[in-house]
Amino acid sequence: MQLELFVTFLFIQNQVLVATASSSSEEDEDDDKGSSHEHHWGYDDQEGWSSTFQDCRGQSQSPIDIETGKAIYDPSLPHIELEGFDLTGSSALKLQNNGHTLKLSLPSTMRIVKGFDQVYLASQLHFHWGTVAVPGSEHTINNVHFPAEIHVVHYNSKYTNISEAASKRDGLAVLGGFIGIGLHENENYEKILSALKDVSIEASDTDIPGFNVRHLLPNNLEKFYRYQGSLTTPPCFQTVHWTMFNETIMVSRKQLAALEDSLKAGHQLLSKNFRVAQLLHGRRVLASFTSSPSVNKDLSEIKPTFAPIEGQMSRGDMLSIALGALFILTLLAFSVYVYQQRKTYSRSKKHSRENVIYKPATKDDV
Ligand SMILES: *[C@@H]1O[C@H](CO)[C@@H](O)[C@H](O)[C@H]1NC(C)=O
Ligand SMILES: *[C@@H]1O[C@H](CO)[C@@H](O)[C@H](O)[C@H]1NC(C)=O
Ligand SMILES: [Zn+2]
Fold first, then answer.
1. What is the CB < 6 Å shell around ligand 2?
2. Atom 5 of ligand 2: nearest residue by CA position
3. Does residue 190 line the site of ligand 1, with CB under 6 A?
4. What H or E segment, with its residue span, contains residue 20?
5. Domains of the chain (ranges, CATH numbers)
6. What pLDDT sits at residue 206?
């Protein structure tokens, strides 16, 4: 019983630490609303971005490498629920080559209704890719790139529009998916990719018929990673709730090649439009799923009375418990040691020569 009290105490202490850490890491808002004059930036000079856009050298930048073994399973992460994503039969959508990416404008009737504290409204989706030889996803999994990545950008419905939301701490939510190569043509992606030839020139655009945008995302939206990050392009505002889905979206080799080879930025091929992974600087990556579900089960079998806590057991909690147990073991070992020392002391009064054996270690031994 006392052990449990102690462990509970450690747990509470841990939670307090977590709370303090997260509140102190809130970004100060940088209220220069992006200077009106256009700055030219490119992917060849990523280190140079921060000289013009100071947020790009912040401590909560994106993309990041997601180390699957270090992601913290958080069963309290709410599932994502989308509404209005089926645009079949509704008005046409503007597809654009803006020189940095292939971008599809989205209506604000598309929204994330569950998953965050507020409703987030869609604004646009776009892609990042490489070449045949260089896989070009922005986020990496255990330092490995995927061939391409899709970003569906949303803004908090409490703001008037995306430009107002973009600089606000809780302004943006991006749903990201890894794109891999499969055997079959992805007919949903073809709705966009078949129009690539119409936007090959930088700053050109075309209209494509509405379709079900939900089908561009993985089937399984329940498994995802969540972390706090930034825009991956200047001005790099650190205002994005990132969601990266665990399930990979598959397109055919031919479809991927079309994305890699069709668009131009100026006279050059528009490709390798991905930013390198940024440092975490102490940020946590949460996971809505666990790859080892047995861990929680085992704990509940050992400690059935722990039900209220076990439900949200995170790595930190388990560490607290382990440390608590370690502390108690040390205490026990120390008690045994003291007890034996005492016995020895009383004996050594009779046999004074034995004293030598129990002399404490000197500094030279350390
Ligand atoms: C966004 O909203 C702000 C504030 O309401 C307004 O000043 C601005 O013109 C809007 N921008 C666009 C692009 O609609
Ligand atoms: C999905 O999760 C599994 C289990 O953790 C992991 O091995 C795999 O690399 C993940 N893939 C992606 C794309 O997140
Ligand atoms: Zn992006």
1. 68, 141, 178, 246, 248, 291
2. 291
3. no
4. helix 2-24
5. 29-289 (3.10.200.10), 296-331 (no CATH)
6. 98
- Measure 127 CA to ligand 3 centroid, in angstroms: 6
Average pLDDT, the chain: 81
Residue 286 has pLDDT above 90, yes or no: yes
Best residue among 64, 68, 150 to mutate for probing ligand 2, ranked by most atoms within 8 Å of CB: 68
Q: Which ligand number lies closest to the CA of residue 287?
A: 2
Residue for token pair 């391409």: 148
Least confident span in 31-35, 69-73, 180-184, 260-264: 31-35
User: pTM for this structure?
Assistant: 0.73
What is the three-state SS of 196-251?
A: HHHHCCCCCEEEECCCEHHHHCCCCCCCEEEEEECCCCCCCCCCEEEEEECCCEEE
Q: How confident is the model at residue 291 (pLDDT cuts 50, 70, 90)?
A: confident
Instruction: For residue 318, name the pLDDT band (cuts at 50, 70, 90).
Output: low
Respond yes or no: is residue 100 known to be catalytic: yes
